[in-house]
Amino acid sequence: METIIQQYCLELVKNIEKILIFDEEQDLSSVCPKILEECKKTSKELVEKHIEYMNEKIRKDKYTRKSKGLSLKEKNISRSILTCLGQIEYKRDNYYDSTNKKYIKPMDEILGIKAYERISIDIKAALVDKATEYSYEKSKALVGVDCISRQSVRNAILKSKIENISICKNRERKAVKELHIFADEDHVHTQKPNKEIGRKNQIVPMVSVSEGIKAISKSRRKTINIQHFVDKEFNTKDLWRIVDKYIQKNYDVGELEKLYIHADGGMWIKNGLEDYSQRVYVCDGFHVKKYLNTIRKIGDDKKIVKNLEKLIKENKKEEAKVLLEELVKSCEDERSNKRCENVCKYIINNWEGIVNRYTLEVPGSCTEGQISHVLSERFSRHPMGWGKETLGKLSYLRVYKKNGKKIDKRIFEGEKNKELENIVERREKINWEIFDNPKFIFDESSPSQKVVKSMGRMKINCFGN
């Protein structure tokens, strides 16, 4: 095997030298793709040869495989799999495992390839990574595998094992005076079963935990050490449980003085983190202004909003109720009356949070911005319908990535069978004599001859031994 590797390396050096010296087009945009293609081609052929070599090793090592209960039943069964090097095609043998009473293909298990799998784990991980940001079509184009379908991208998402990864970063436990929690939900269009016509929405709740907000310019603010959380089943109780666990693990709760929850008044948000005595509910400024603007449009008295804001600052709820009731009675048509009732109900039901927004020195809320940036940009901003399972997993993976983590092959199962791998003894001493006196078609000063001769003199093993 080592001789084959050396021969392939020699051939690769020669081909690269031809491109660099004899090619008419010498601009980088022409040279680099050709060299990359040569490297990928050589690497692909090397991998195929290596698999063939390992398969032969297992077949010939009768004593070891029989001691493990493996009996050869069929030779050279063809298989192909798409990898980052291209389509890898190889042949492997089929054995009967008398210990576990089943047929197995040792090479597939050593390589971590499951039955009927046609795309390698690294490609699937790359597809899922891109799918968190882009459409299925664009994702496969960016990964460079146009030969597969959009359904294959979706299948990769559905097969991902998100329980293998933690959605947030774990830091050293630190003491902070206050935490700011931004909670809201995205409303995503989903597909009805059996392609039924009509609308169906799925609420995707999200909670973001931050240590505060700092100014980065006159008109811009930035959250400090923010981490986002979603639940793949959209269960708000489980979501708050995850948030609670994160706070307990990463912060000294005994030193925490205030835990501000910024939200729009949703009941699932009000019920969150109730066990914290430091908990302070603050109504989202965006929604407060929106409802006050509605009152301004409906009411004839232009000072009504100012009067209401004054009552909010003075925390005079009963007087505010009287003012709002008069506003509802003054509405002339049924539509305005209904709108006004909804506004009044919102203000009264969220009175404490609205008062806190006006009276406490807390930074402006960014709940809508977080939802828009993290979820809506991918799931609800464009006209599309999602499957519930796909939405759950992809929203989790998108948040995972937004939290500064990298999506890799850990999200897929594909562990190698160590017992079978040990059958193949690959760490053999490489013979470097092939490099000592090579015959070249180039002159003695050619770059390839200098490189190869230096490799022979230094006896450097560049293949891992």
UniProtKB/TrEMBL annotation:
Coiled-coil ranges (or none): 305-337
Pfam families for the chain: UPF0236 (PF06782)
Keyword line: Coiled coil
InterPro entries: UPF0236 (IPR009620)
Similarity remark: Belongs to the UPF0236 family.
Protein name: ISLre2 family transposase
Organism this protein belongs to: Peptostreptococcus porci
Source taxonomy: Bacteria, Bacillati, Bacillota, Clostridia, Peptostreptococcales
